[in-house]
Specification:
Elements (H helix, E strand, L loop, with lengths): L2 H17 L33 H9 L10 E12 L14 E6 L4 E7 L16 H9 L1 E13 L2 E11 L8 E8 L4 E9 L6 E9 L1
Antiparallel strand pairs: 1-2, 1-8, 2-3, 3-4, 4-5, 5-6, 6-7, 7-8
């Protein structure tokens, strides 16, 4: 930015910032095409003024999530599936399903989801319960555990669950990849998409959690 342009920007920018504290563009470099004191974090231009308090907060807010943001125990709010062909939203374990997911500081994770109102077995031991009851218990519960890592992939924050134990044996040894989004209300959304079995229609899973 030339000296003349910068003087103009400072003059315009100072009045602008008196009325709008967020009048700085939080991007990757100064915008020479719009020299209105719009500055970016880490700008190397020595003439650029430092970020004001509001801009500093915005800059912090756009930092990508880390593993530390996941630490703790989260309670399921809702697991819903939407479809590209417009069919109604479904809830695999019902709209009132319960669940927990936990991330530890040393890289461990575990998740479980249950259908609400599961019927107790008629036997004190699962091994002696009738086969139909055991099947119903299996079909109304979902669980797996293992290690996890957080990554950035194609501009999205993701958590990868490396499954070592699962109620469904087919999950063992798999990597369950979830996009992760943190909302202002404190909820965490883990999402993924896959084809509806036996078709080319995509379905989109959204699991919303609250800590």
């Amino acid at each position: 930015m030339s000296g003349t342009a910068w003087k103009t920007a400072r003059k315009f920018g100072s009045s602008m910032h008196n009325t709008w504290a967020m009048g700085r563009w939080l991007g990757s470099s100064c915008r020479s095409a719009c020299p209105m004191a719009f500055t970016a974090p880490g700008c190397v231009n020595p003439s650029c003024p430092p970020l004001d308090g509001m801009a500093q907060q915005m800059n912090t807010a756009v930092k990508p999530p880390t593993a530390q943001d996941l630490h703790g125990v989260w309670t399921l709010v809702r697991w819903e599936i939407t479809y590209d062909d417009g069919r109604p939203t479904t809830y695999p374990f019902g709209p009132d399903a319960t669940g927990l997911i936990q991330y530890t500081h040393d890289g461990g994770m575990a998740a479980c989801i249950a259908r609400a109102g599961r019927v107790p077995l008629s036997s004190a031991s699962v091994r002696s319960a009738p086969e139909a009851e055991r099947l119903a218990a299996f079909e109304s519960f979902f669980q797996y555990a293992g290690r996890y890592e957080v990554r950035q992939h194609e501009g999205r924050a993701q958590v990868v669950h490396h499954v070592s134990h699962a109620l469904n044996p087919n999950f063992v040894g798999s990597d369950q990849i979830r996009n992760m989004d943190f909302a202002a209300d404190g909820t965490l959304t883990l999402s993924a998409s896959d084809p509806v079995p036996g078709s080319t229609t995509l379905r989109h899973h959204r699991l919303i959690w609250r800590r």
